[in-house]
Backbone:
């Protein structure tokens, strides 16, 4: 019983991981730019 359970969860995990990696591959890389504060001097 436990063997089938573990195999099923391993297959589910691998399918989710593969789908995640496919989606991640097609997304543009995130670039962090520091946000400039509003000009409070004026």
Residues:
């Amino acid at each position: 019983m436990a063997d089938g359970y573990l195999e099923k969860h391993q297959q589910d995990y691998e399918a989710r991981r593969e789908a995640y990696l496919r989606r991640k591959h097609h997304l543009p890389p995130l670039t962090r730019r520091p946000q400039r504060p509003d000009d409070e001097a004026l």
Observations:
- The chain has one helix and no strands.
